[in-house]
């Protein structure tokens, strides 16, 4: 089975409503925002980090920028035409990846032309580069400490209830909660849930109610998503597939944080999201405000491989954009910052991967 066939089979078997024949329509946005401009600058910076990390190494492969890199934004002259051409491109060939990887021998040949369909089809890999405004290591440390504190609080509250007169009182008032609490361990608190009752007819019942409230609040912490994610939008799955069906190049998502980056095959994203046992553990599905409320699959970034084990922090500065009617937009630009490529992982997972 070819790569194109594997991707198509996974999409056709997906539990999510993916319209493979999606046609995008709509009016272009009338005005950009400071947040949009900052996000765009950050995305461009992340792409540059990946591009340089690959090409600064003496490998037999080179990274070539491929996706759209226009600097136009809503409100600029010519943006309407740019937006319409972009929609037409998405509806025709799908979503172009940001970077294509080619053998150096092909890249150095006289026939190399990134605008040629024949050349694009000879790429060994395609990278969709995403950026995130987090330090991955610090986030993981924070979440680990938060979970550890929540479990410690759960164990403390459990003992305060079961090793006191409140135990018998709880057994009378709600035997089901008493049973849950009696068998709960540090490993199973995250699996618990119960309806909270409020009792206030005695000091003991008030104390019990407060302890159960505190217990539930700590259990809620354990229920929250505690991982940074790679976030393909549901509609993007169809648009990425459209490009893959045309060119047949294996596709990867690469998530850049401000201290490292992870890579995951597009095929793995589909496999993970198609298994309901994974939901709530290593992926979730949300309507993300940051993605215009569109349904977004959020996969634990650590399911991917650490392709850039270190990223140096870039410098940043404020910029000003003046719109035609006099409105001023202030946003942040990024420069510098180096990514350090894991060459062996790049060659095994990206070049030699499925």
Provide structural commentary.
There is one protein chain. With 354 residues, this protein is α+β, with helices and mostly antiparallel strands. It has two domains: 3-134 and 228-351, 3-Layer(aba) Sandwich (Trna Endonuclease, Chain: A, domain 1); 138-223, no CATH class. 42% of the residues lie in helices and 19% in strands. It is built from twelve helices and twelve strands. It has helices spanning 3-12, 34-55, 79-92, 104-107, 117-120, 136-162, 166-173, 175-183, 203-223, 234-247, 266-273, 343-351; strands at residues 61-65, 99-103, 125-131, 229-230, 251-256, 261-265, 283-288, 294-300, 305-311, 315-322, 328-335, 339-341. The strands form three sheets. Strands 1-2-3-5-6-9-12 form a seven-stranded mixed beta sheet. A three-stranded antiparallel beta sheet has the order 4-8-7, covered by helices on one side. The protein starts with a helix and ends with a helix.
User: What is the H-and-E element order?
Assistant: HHEHEHHEHHHHEHEEHEEEEEEH
Strand order of the largest sheet: 1-2-3-5-6-9-12
Structural class assignment: alpha+beta
Based on Cα principal axes, name the global outline: elongated
Low-confidence stretches: none
Global Rg: 25 Å
SS field, number of helical segments: 12
Helix content: 40-55%
- Overall CATH class of the largest domain: Alpha Beta
Distance between the termini: 12 Å
CATH fold-level name of the largest domain: Trna Endonuclease, Chain: A, domain 1
Taken together, the total number of domains comes to 2
């Amino acid at each position: 089975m070819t790569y194109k066939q594997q991707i198509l089979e996974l999409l056709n078997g997906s539990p999510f409503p993916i319209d493979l024949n999606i046609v995008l329509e709509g009016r272009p946005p009338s005005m950009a925002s400071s947040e949009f401009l900052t996000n765009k600058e950050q995305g461009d910076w992340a792409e540059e980090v990946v591009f340089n990390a690959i090409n600064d190494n003496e490998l037999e492969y080179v990274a070539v920028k491929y996706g759209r890199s226009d600097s136009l934004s809503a409100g600029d002259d010519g943006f309407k035409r740019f937006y319409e051409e972009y929609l037409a491109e998405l509806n025709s060939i799908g979503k172009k990846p940001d970077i294509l990887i080619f053998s150096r021998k092909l890249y150095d040949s006289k026939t190399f032309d990134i605008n040629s369909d024949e050349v694009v089809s000879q790429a060994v890999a395609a990278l969709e580069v995403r950026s995130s405004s987090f330090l991955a290591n610090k986030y993981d440390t924070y979440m680990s400490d938060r979970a550890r504190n929540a479990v410690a609080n759960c164990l403390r509250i459990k003992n305060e209830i079961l090793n006191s007169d409140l135990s018998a009182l709880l057994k009378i008032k709600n035997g089901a909660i008493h049973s849950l609490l009696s068998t709960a361990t540090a490993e199973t608190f995250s699996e618990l849930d119960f309806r909270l009752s409020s009792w206030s007819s005695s000091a003991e019942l008030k104390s019990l109610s407060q302890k159960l409230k505190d217990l539930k609040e700590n259990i809620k912490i354990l229920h929250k998503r505690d991982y940074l994610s790679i976030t393909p939008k549901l509609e993007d799955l169809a648009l990425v597939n459209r490009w893959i069906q045309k060119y047949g190049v294996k596709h990867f998502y690469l998530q850049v944080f401000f201290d490292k980056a992870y890579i995951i095959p597009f095929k793995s994203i589909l496999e993970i999201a198609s298994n309901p046992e994974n939901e709530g553990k290593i992926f979730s599905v949300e309507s993300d405000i940051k993605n215009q409320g569109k349904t977004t699959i959020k996969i634990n970034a650590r399911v991917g491989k650490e392709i850039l084990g270190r990223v140096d922090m870039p410098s940043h500065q404020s910029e000003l954009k003046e719109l035609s009617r006099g409105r001023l937009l202030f946003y942040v630009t990024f420069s510098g910052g180096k990514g350090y490529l894991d060459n062996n992982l790049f060659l095994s997972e990206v070049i030699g991967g499925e």
